[in-house]
Design goal:
Layout lengths: L3 E6 L2 E6 L13 H14 L5 E6 L23 H10 L3 H7 L5 E5 L3 E2 L1 H7 L3 E5 L3 E3 L13 H9 L1 H10 L3 E2 H6 L5 E3 L4 H13 L3 H13 L5 H16 L2 H11 L8
Parallel strand pairs: 2-3, 3-4, 4-6, 5-7, 6-9
Antiparallel strand pairs: 1-2, 7-8
Helix pairs in contact: 1-3, 4-5, 5-6, 9-10
Length: 262
């Protein structure tokens, strides 16, 4: 049974994790392969301008399948083999998602636990249902964030809040997530997807090439020097000025009409 359900509406692609029976767990199934494949497809399809990621059922994602972790008790499974399993397994998801140039909106419909929280942090914008909760809970089962959470969470909420969440493993509710900047909006459960789709539509109304380059600049700015980012920005701007969509936007402004982007 596929883990991901895909729905296309014009320039917007909605990705739904569709295994509510496992609380949309990210391990012990085909989740990794499917996330990598859909990200490859998105990168090749210039007509996609925005992506929405959400979960089916009452839970966004429970992260790793804890029951499945019992197999690590087998002495035949060496630490070296486990390390390689992470490298070739769940760590492929943050690599795939963070390399996307298309804006990704995460519509968090319920608890986002462990790797589920980290998955939300891989997205550009997070909108939460009032029923959503968030926990960096790895320590509570005696493991560490193996999927990049130690890099992702501090960039979303700051070092101090990330440390509090990672060291206690305690969950925070949607209102606290809003207060610490983990999400940008909290909405009633029945308004979650309509809100995400309305935001995606606003994003998709803009020129696709400029949007992708803007996202890349924002991501590069997280670890580049100002000087390096200015150089990259100059190069991207030179490309943007020569696009048909830029020409159309300028002419629409001059002619006082709505632009018609390609």
């Amino acid at each position: 049974m596929p883990f991901l359900k895909l729905e296309r509406d014009g320039a917007i692609l909605t990705i739904t994790m569709d295994q509510p029976g496992t609380r949309n767990a990210l391990t012990g199934n085909t989740a990794v392969q499917e996330f990598v494949q859909v990200c490859d497809d998105i990168r090749r399809d210039a007509s996609i301008k925005a992506v929405i990621l959400t979960g089916e059922g009452p839970v966004f994602s429970s992260g790793g399948n804890v029951k499945d972790m019992q197999r690590f008790f087998d002495d035949a499974l060496t630490p070296e083999a486990i390390r390689e399993e992470y490298r070739q397994g769940i760590q492929r998801i943050p690599r795939a998602l963070t390399q996307l140039d298309v804006p990704v909106i995460c519509a968090v419909n319920g608890p986002a636990i462990g790797a589920g929280l980290d998955l939300a942090c891989m997205c550009d914008i997070r909108i939460a249902s009032e029923t959503a909760t968030f926990a960096e809970s790895f320590v509570r089962v005696g493991i560490v964030p193996g999927d990049g959470g130690a890099w992702l969470l501090p960039r979303a909420v700051g070092r101090a809040k990330a440390a509090e969440m990672a060291f206690t493993g305690e969950a925070i509710d949607a209102r606290e997530a809003l207060a610490c900047g983990l999400v940008s909006r909290v909405v009633p459960a029945d308004a979650l997807l309509p809100t995400a789709r309305a935001l995606a539509a606003k994003i998709a109304a803009n020129p696709g090439a400029a949007m992708r380059m803007t996202k890349r600049l924002l991501r590069e700015g997280e670890h580049s020097s100002l000087e390096s980012l200015l150089e990259l920005s100059a190069g991207y701007q030179a490309l943007a000025h020569k696009t048909a969509d830029h020409r159309e936007a300028v002419m629409a402004f001059v002619e006082k009409r709505a632009p018609r982007f390609q």
